[in-house]
Design brief:
heterotrimer, A alpha+beta (300), B alpha/beta (386), C alpha/beta (392), A: 300 residues, alpha+beta, Thiol Ester Dehydrase, Chain A, five-stranded antiparallel β-sheet, 6 helices, 33% strand, elongated, C: 392 residues, Peroxisomal Thiolase, Chain A, domain 1, two-stranded antiparallel ribbon, 11 strands, 38% helix, binds zinc ion
Chain lengths: 300, 386, 392
């Protein structure tokens, strides 16, 4: 066919029909105890001895009716399988990337599929112990378990995001109010006893008309962002540049923000944009840095 | 023993990302016209004096088509006016299973099969497969067939030790064959390195490990032996069929076990009288919707020893066994048609009409289809020529 | 038809049909029918080789529903096939099961039809059947008043309306004998005049009371080879023959052909090839897919190949009642229960029960040697089954 695309209609349609699904007695009982008691229940087939979660009224191995053979299972369990969902669809309960795990609850024989949180994507593994975290608001569905949180054997150090886990657009911040004490301590640490930071009478003669904090003091607030949040523990910063835009007065509340803007594939480093703002949302300083995310050798 | 059934004609459209200039009826009509070039098609309409198509089996999916009773739109095209049309609403290869039974029952002599699907019609095929899950326990956590495949791929990789490099090699090989297949135009060749550099989709599945979205239609004419030998030179005989269903909930299964496929294969081999599947076939066409499935299904079919598929890939096993010479489903077929297209490609090989991908003197073939989350349902068929 | 081997129906199971089955989910409701069919045949699920599944996906918006339903059907580890053809689905899966057994591929096949219409929007679902480009804006579900208008024009308003209402009340009287039927209204013949005027009109003279229900329910039927059938049951209902006839989607696109209803075409061909010359006499009862009492009345003429007003007379003379000469739908038919994917399967199942003599309270009081069952769907499609008491 040599029809041009302009000559072909596309009729937009939407299958917007209402549906209501009945969970049945067995499924309802499961959801009610989840909702009202935060208790996960399984059904036991006496013929094959298996304890099933999610519930079903027939054992599809033995074809036995098991609708009233309830047993309690624990809210804790083990991850038996997982994948990391990176693609986005409207039917997903959380924004990707996220971990979709198969969780075998203690006391059950069949794992259930659910969201797993509390572990860096790169450290997700089969065998992790998890605990059900119940939703604050009920949805009368399996989502009354909001997710499973990884628990137990915590690693000695909670390392930050690896290069693979970092994505353009990820950001983190740290906020602190700068007090007179902070400025005095910083003067002691740096040896910079410049009277424009310490002597109000001298400061009146400067263009600022009052004492201001050392420029490096608010600047240093990016350190907890980069070293402890994003990328986080284990990060090395080989380069940082800053332009100062406005002074910081005593009592100002400064927020330092770092955002990943580029992934440098060759080096496995990231470039981050840095911004400092005060309580009036005025830009105090801006800049950028290179960050070396927690390296593989650190992970042992 | 029931009578033999032969595939007397095979035709298909190309499979492309978005056939914007055709409705699904138009794709099917093209295929029907192509089939008529191969065999004389009349419609018997229950008139005993007319030898022709007694029954049409269509394959489509109401949700992909956004039409209740989607075959309703096909009766005009498929000559079912005052004739019989029935829709297989399952993996398309099951139309062959059904057509075989319909002819062997003695009730029908000639069957027309026509499958169509336009994956491009829906906003996302994942949204369609999402509603295959039950509304209470698996839909709310966002499952769809892609997510389920991710879970299975992780389980299979953990069990078999298959590597990212081996999976990349499968995709690169697929693209090489697809470039020679006139039915899969527009797919560029890829290096394994490019595949390994592509983004993750559902770990360990990368974006390039997944088959592209596609539109297309495929059709066949089946006939009882006494008619098949009269109406065509090279009937392809169906020698065995088999299928099986696994548990629904993913946690109820061992996702790396290949349970349903093993049962489907054993049933097929038994019916076909095959004792050593490793040497029985000149052509193997399997439905690899994602790269990990090619080695995994090969293990399930008993063609490769369990846990050895990684090494088998490194040893160029797929070339030696002539697996997916067409490019396979990885080169892009709509979800419900993959298995039927595999059978069509296998039949083309046995007829010596597979063009640049032709394997010399191919006499026997196996085709495979899969449906449901993480391979809940598998169907296998074996073919041979005289 | 030269069949490879005989196939008999040896087990029938049905869930209760109702407008609301909140206490069960889809696989659980199907399980009720499957469990009853197995018990009826004296089998366990292990005796089943293959399962055929059918329903309409958009009525519940479940993609490839046989995957989920495996929880209740017992299909794990078995061969399965899913076939759907709209309203005819239930009868089509009987044909499917017949082929699978007759071919020798399987000895015992279970066919399962179901619908849980309460979970979706049936009229919206049916409207989505129409072509999105040419017809969807005009479609009003399955409601049409054309048949009522045609019958009225041919036989006069009074006679036509009376006959269709009598047909409806007979069906309700039958449904009262069937505990599983959905609508059991307890209608009496003296209500006819009132209903003809006061039942809410849907389209023209098609009124609410004439129309089929919208039901939840499942039906399961077990088919077996002659050898297996005789092992499990001394009175199987044998499948003598069946036929499927479609019409085109765009009515009249084969413009120069005389208009023949698919029902008549199917009946003509089926009777001819089975040597049935006088269907009215040679067939003992009929389970008809009658989506409304107007259609039931009108189609009786098509199926039994009448030209005049014999079909009206059959209704007027009480011949179609359960104890009449030619009982139609002793089960209550489709106006009583209509779980769409199961509806046509229920017709075959009920005809089989009549042949077995196991229909319980709604068993016809005579030996049924030969029974007819029909399915209807799509744009006037027909599936017609002929069942017999003696193996063919
Ligand atoms: Zn059990």
């Amino acid at each position: 066919m040599n029809t041009a695309k302009d000559d072909c209609f596309v009729v937009k349609g939407k299958l917007a029909l209402p549906y209501q699904y009945f969970a049945g007695k067995t499924g309802s009982r499961f959801i009610i105890s989840l909702r009202d008691e935060h208790k996960i229940r399984g059904l036991k087939c006496e013929k094959c001895g298996k304890v099933f979660v999610p519930p079903r009224s027939t054992c599809d191995i033995c074809f036995e009716n098991i609708a009233d053979k309830w047993v309690d299972v624990a809210n804790t369990g083990t991850v038996t399988g997982f994948t990391i969902i990176r693609y986005e669809e409207p039917h997903q309960p959380v924004k990707p990337p996220y971990v979709l795990g198969l969780v075998k609850l203690d006391g059950a024989d069949t794992p259930i599929a659910h969201i797993v949180k509390g572990v860096a994507l790169s450290k997700m593994a089969v065998g992790l112990k998890v605990k059900a975290v119940f939703a604050k608001k009920t949805t009368n569905s399996i989502m009354d378990i909001d997710h499973f949180q990884v628990v137990g054997d915590k690693p000695k150090f909670e390392l930050g995001y690896s290069y693979e886990e970092l994505e353009v657009g990820m950001s983190a911040s740290f906020t602190k109010t700068i007090s007179e004490t902070d400025v005095y301590l910083f003067a002691g640490i740096s040896g910079d006893f410049n009277p424009m930071h310490l002597n109000e009478e001298f400061a009146k003669l400067t263009p600022f008309g009052t004492r201001i904090a050392h420029g490096a003091l608010p600047q240093s607030l990016i350190a907890p962002v980069l070293g402890m949040k994003l990328p986080g523990l284990g990060t090395v910063i080989p380069e940082i540049t800053v332009k100062f835009r406005k002074p910081t007065y005593f009592g100002d509340t400064i927020t330092a923000v770092g955002e990943v803007v580029e992934k440098i594939e060759k080096k496995k480093w990231v470039r981050m944009e840095l911004r400092w703002t005060n309580q009036k949302d005025e830009l105090v300083a801006e800049g950028s840095c290179l960050a070396i995310p927690p390296a593989a050798f650190l992970k042992k | 023993m029931a009578r033999r059934v032969g595939i007397c004609a095979v035709a298909q459209t190309t499979y492309e990302r978005d056939k914007w200039n055709q409705r699904f009826q138009g794709m099917a009509l093209d295929v029907l016209e192509a089939l008529r070039q191969q065999v004389d098609i009349k419609f018997s309409r229950h008139r005993p004096e007319v030898q022709g198509i007694d029954m049409t089996i269509s394959v489509s999916d109401d949700i992909f088509d956004a039409r209740t009773i989607s075959n309703n739109a096909m009766t005009d095209v498929l000559g079912a006016h005052f004739g019989c049309e029935e829709k297989v609403a399952q993996e398309g290869i099951q139309a062959l299973y059904y057509g075989l039974a319909a002819i062997q029952s003695g009730h029908n002599d000639m069957v027309l099969i026509m499958g169509h699907c336009k994956e491009s019609q829906c906003a996302s095929r994942n949204m369609v497969t999402h509603v295959a899950f039950d509304p209470f326990f698996t839909r709310p956590v966002g499952l769809d067939f892609c997510a389920a495949a991710g879970l299975q791929a992780q389980a299979y990789a953990a069990k078999s030790g298959i590597t990212d490099a081996q999976l990349a090699k499968i995709v690169a090989r697929c693209r090489k064959h697809a470039a020679q297949n006139p039915y899969t135009p527009g797919l560029e060749e890829l290096t394994a390195e490019a595949v390994m550099a592509s983004d993750m989709l559902a770990d360990p599945i990368r974006a390039l490990h997944a088959r592209p979205v596609s539109d297309g239609a495929v059709g066949m004419v089946l006939a009882a032996e006494e008619i098949a030998v009269k109406i065509c030179d090279k009937p392809i005989w169906i020698t065995g069929v088999g299928n099986s269903m696994d548990h629904f909930f993913l946690g109820d299964r061992d996702l790396a076990s290949n349970r349903a496929l093993k049962e489907a294969a054993q049933r097929t081999y038994k019916r076909a009288g095959i004792t050593d599947p490793k040497t029985a076939f000149d052509i193997i066409e399997i439905s690899d919707q994602y790269a990990y499935q090619l080695p995994m299904w090969m293990e399930g079919l008993g063609m490769v020893d369990e846990g050895k598929a990684g090494q088998w890939i490194d040893d160029n096993g797929p070339d030696k066994l002539h697996v997916n010479m067409s490019g396979g489903m990885l080169a892009g077929n709509p979800l419900i048609l993959g298995g039927l297209v595999r059978a069509a490609e296998a039949a083309l090989q046995l007829r010596g009409e597979a063009g640049n991908n032709q394997v010399k003197n191919a006499k026997t073939a196996l085709a495979h289809g899969v449906m449901g989350p993480a391979g809940q349902f598998h169907s296998v068929i074996t073919l041979e020529r005289n | 038809m030269k069949k490879n081997r005989n196939v008999g129906i040896i087990g029938v199971g049905q869930s209760v049909y109702s407008s609301h089955r909140e206490e069960v989910n889809q696989p659980e409701m199907i399980h009720e029918a499957v469990a009853e069919a197995l018990a009826h045949a004296g089998m366990t699920i292990d005796d089943i080789d293959c399962i055929v599944h059918g329903n309409m996906e958009l009525f519940e918006m479940v993609h490839q529903p046989d995957c989920w339903h495996s929880l209740g059907i017992g299909s794990v580890g078995k061969e399965t096939l899913r076939v759907t053809t709209g309203g005819t689905t239930g009868a089509t899966i009987c044909a499917t099961a017949d082929y699978l057994v007759a071919s020798g591929l399987h000895d015992v096949v279970l066919a399962v039809g179901f619908e849980k219409l309460q979970e979706g929007h049936t009229t919206g679902g049916i409207t989505n059947m129409a072509d999105p480009l040419w017809a969807r804006q005009l479609q009003t579900g399955a409601l049409t008043g054309m048949t009522a208008a045609a019958v009225i024009e041919e036989f006069g308003e009074e006679r036509a309306k009376k006959a269709s209402m009598k047909y409806r009340i007979i069906m309700d009287k039958h449904a009262m004998k069937n505990k599983k039927a959905h609508r059991r209204l307890g209608l009496e013949f003296d209500q006819a005049d009132d209903l003809m005027v006061n039942s809410p009109a849907l389209v023209g003279e098609l009124r609410m009371i004439h129309m089929c229900s919208q039901s939840d329910g499942a039906c399961a039927v077990i088919f077996a080879s002659e050898e297996k059938a005789k092992q499990f049951r001394k009175n199987p209902a044998w499948i003598k023959d069946h036929i499927t006839v479609h019409r085109e989607e765009s009515f009249g696109c084969f413009g120069d052909e005389p208009f023949v209803l698919s029902h008549r075409y199917a009946a003509e061909k089926l009777f001819a090839r089975n040597g049935i010359k006088n269907p009215r006499k040679e067939i003992d009862m009929f389970e008809m897919y009658d989506p409304s009492s107007w259609w039931g009345l009108d189609w009786l003429r098509e199926f039994l190949l009448f030209d005049g007003d014999e079909h009206l007379k059959m209704v007027e003379n009480d011949e179609i009642t359960i104890d009449g000469d030619f009982p139609i739908n002793p089960s209550g038919g489709v106006t009583a229960s209509n779980p769409i994917g199961a509806t046509a399967l229920v017709r075959v199942a009920e005809a089989a029960l009549q042949i077995m003599g196991e229909a319980g309270e709604h068993q016809v009081p005579k030996t049924v040697n030969q029974a007819l069952a029909s399915g209807f769907g799509g744009t006037l499609w027909t599936v017609l089954f002929l069942l017999t008491r003696e193996a063919p």
